Every structure is written in structure tokens, then in C-alpha cells.
Amino acid sequence: MGLWAMLSASAAATVLGFGPGDSRLSFELASSLHPIEGQALAYSGSLDTDALTGTLTVGASALTTGLGPRDSRMGVWCLEVARFPTIALAVARIEGDLVALRSGVGTGRVSLLGTLTIRDVALAVAVPATYAWEGQKLRIKGRHDMKWTDWNIPDPSILLSTVRPEMAVVFDLVAGPS
């Protein structure tokens, strides 16, 4: 095997997969009483460092805030998990510091550009992120600020607590060879 072939073989793996193991996917909302924090317990995704595309699929019924009645309202009323069992992000392209991303070493900043589908509404999003190669694995972290009202999600507020429409999705994903 020639030197060029060896160098090419050691370049970044093309398709990397991730899930809840070493990763974390959470959300934050503000309310009139106190901040609400939750996390996704079931999700999977992939990132193709050659094609610069990716996916994230979240089990809508596996979102939890740790409070049963609130989680039930979120699943049944707000997300209608029986009709819309998944939340999906389809990353159509990645822009930013791509040399290190494709090479398999180093760090950088990128923007994940694609479509986020919640319930039956699909909207274009640009998600800022940072990444760092850790051996054969890629750690990608970021925060996406959004308004749940943009996806026509019914207001989860109750008499004692008003939930503000602004929310953040926070992620720390560790992706490895599939």
C-alpha cells in the first residue's frame, strides 16, 4: 500500500453514528414559576463527514422533565405522540470549518443547515455547533434557540405556571464509526 493510500485510509470515517450512550440531548424552557429542564432518552442519528449531511431522530414519547403529569401533558397534548411519534432533524448541508471535520483531526465551528420537523410542521433551521475529534470519535456540541410556537405546538401552560415560547435544545453528541 502506497503512502497516499495509507493517508487516505486514515482520514475521517465517512458516516458516524450516535445515540444516548456517551451523548446528551436536552431542552430548556422558561416558565413563570421556574425553569423547566428535560432530556431525550431515546434518539439516534448519523453524520456523514464526506457528504456533509446528517440526521437526528428523537422518540417524542421519550422526552422527559422528570415530572409525570407535566410529561404526560407534553406527550399527549403538546406533541401528540400517538400521531407524531418522532421529531426529526434532516441536515442537508454543513457549513463552516470543514477541513478538520473532513480530515478526522482537530476542532472547528460549523452550522448545521436543514429541516426540523415537529408534529406536522417542517421548518428550515441553522444550528450552530462546535466539534472536536477525539481519536476515531467526533464530539459535536451546541445550542439551538427556538420558539415552540413556530411549530404550532399547543401551549403547555397551566393555571399556575405560564410557559414562555422561547426554548433551547442543547446537545453534546459523541459519534463514532457505524
What does this molecule look like?
The chain is mainly beta and 178 residues long. It has a single domain (13-177), classed as Lipocalin (Beta Barrel). Helix content is 13%, strand content 53%. It has helices at residues 3-10, 68-78, 99-103, and strands spanning 15-18, 24-31, 36-40, 43-48, 53-59, 63-64, 86-96, 107-118, 121-134, 137-147, 163-177. It has an 8-stranded antiparallel barrel with strand order 1-4-5-7-8-9-10-11. β4 (43-48) and β5 (53-59) form a beta hairpin. The chain is elongated. The two termini are 25 Å apart. The model is unreliable at 1-10 (pLDDT under 50).
Termini separation comes to 25 Å
CATH class: Mainly Beta
Oligomer: single chain
> Based on DSSP secondary structure assignment, what is the total number of beta strands?
11
The radius of gyration computed from the alpha-carbon positions, rounded to a whole number of angstroms, is 18 Å
For the record, the CATH architecture stands as Beta Barrel
Biggest pleated sheet: 8 strands, antiparallel, barrel
Structural class by secondary-structure content: mainly beta
CATH fourth-tier homologous superfamily? Lipid/polyisoprenoid-binding, YceI-like
Sequence of secondary-structure elements? HEEEEEEHEHEEEE
Q: What is the count of structural domains?
A: 1
What is the strand arrangement across the widest sheet? 1-4-5-7-8-9-10-11
Mean pLDDT across residues: 92
Helix content: 10-25%
CATH topology: Lipocalin
Number of helices: 3
